Amino acid sequence: MILSKGQKIYQAVIHLILTLVTLSMVLPLLLFMSSITEENSLIVNGYSLFPKKFSLYAYLYILNNSATLVRAYGISLFVTAAGTSGCLLLSTLTAFPLSLKNLPGRRFFSFFVFFTMLFSGGLVPSYIMWTTWFGIRNTIWAYILPNFLLGAFNVILVRTYMSNSIPFELYEAANIDGASYPCIYLRIALPLSKPILVTVGLFSGLAYWNDWTNAQYYISDARMLSVQALLNRMVQDIQALLANTSANSGALMETPQVSIRMAIAFVAIIPILILYPFLQKYFADGVMLGAIKG
Fold first, then answer.
1. Structural contact between residues 258 and 58, judged by C-beta atoms closer than 8 angstroms
2. For residue 230, what are the β-bridge partners?
3. Which residues share a beta bridge with 54?
4. Do 161 and 290 meet the contact criterion of CB atoms below 8 Å apart?
């Protein structure tokens, strides 16, 4: 069968997409196998799905600080849950009024939200504001409040979904029957927006879970480190040890350098690997429906 030029291009694009999907499934497994590979074998033979020499030394190195790691996991889980819940609450409370066709000044408020995507105050003014006026330094709020709690992108995504997927006539009918707008928000808008809420929640949850920059700026107390910040500090400690020419050569030989990074990355993504399959259906629906132009 002879394919036309358009069909060949189409097949090439499909093959590229399927290749990327396959790599996204294989890479976490490659990450794990690299983390349990003996250090010298990993350096000599490179990354492989079937390592020649197995070693759990990288995980034992991490577990030497097991109490600290458990506390960091607790902080990350709380921050992710609280931050994601707050993000969903504020995003829907902002998006719901903007989705109403009869909202006075709707275009102005929509532009005001969009404007925040174009400009920001900058790092230094933000740091001064959060530390001086809000006093979040070395507190749990340092992880929750800056950057991720409310974003224009999430608001626009939820507003677009509500505008296009929920008929405005449904709101009007409920209002005629005596339902107030808070009642409409709770009993109609939120239940019918489940796909986009899961999508935005997943975006927000990933942002909170993977965040280490807020700890870099606002956290100096080692007891307040999240799991990402703790693992990042472990990598920095190893690099500092290797850069120290006066360090004991025996300690350098025993310290994993490459496999520890793979183990740290795998430990950090375990909760995401567990949670994502349960949310995949809603995530796909929310991306497809919420991406419709309003």
1. no
2. none
3. 37
4. yes
Amino acid at 293: K
Alpha-helical segments (H) within 99-212: 106-115, 123-128, 141-144, 152-165, 168-176, 181-184, 190-192, 194-210
**CB-based contact 122:184 (threshold 8 Å):** no
Q: Which of 221, 222, 230, 206 is nearest to 283 (CA)?
A: 206
The 10s digit of each residue's pLDDT in 123-155 is 888 889 999 999 999 999 999 998 888 888 899
* Three-state DSSP class for residue 54: strand
> Which tokens hold the place of 17?
């997409």
Burial (CB count <10 Å: 0-12, 13-18, 19+), residue 22: exposed
State pLDDT tens for residues 1-16.
566 777 778 888 888 8
Tokens 């290749």, located at residue: 19
Helix, strand, or coil here: 255?
Answer: coil
**How many angstroms separate the CA atoms of 211 and 96, rounded?**
28
**Eight-state DSSP code of residue 147:** T
CB atoms within 10 A of CB 18: 10
Phi, psi of 137 (to 5 degrees): -60, 130
In single-letter form, the type of residue at position 61 comes to Y
Q: Is 192 exposed, middle or buried (0-12, 13-18, 19+ CB in 10 A)?
A: middle
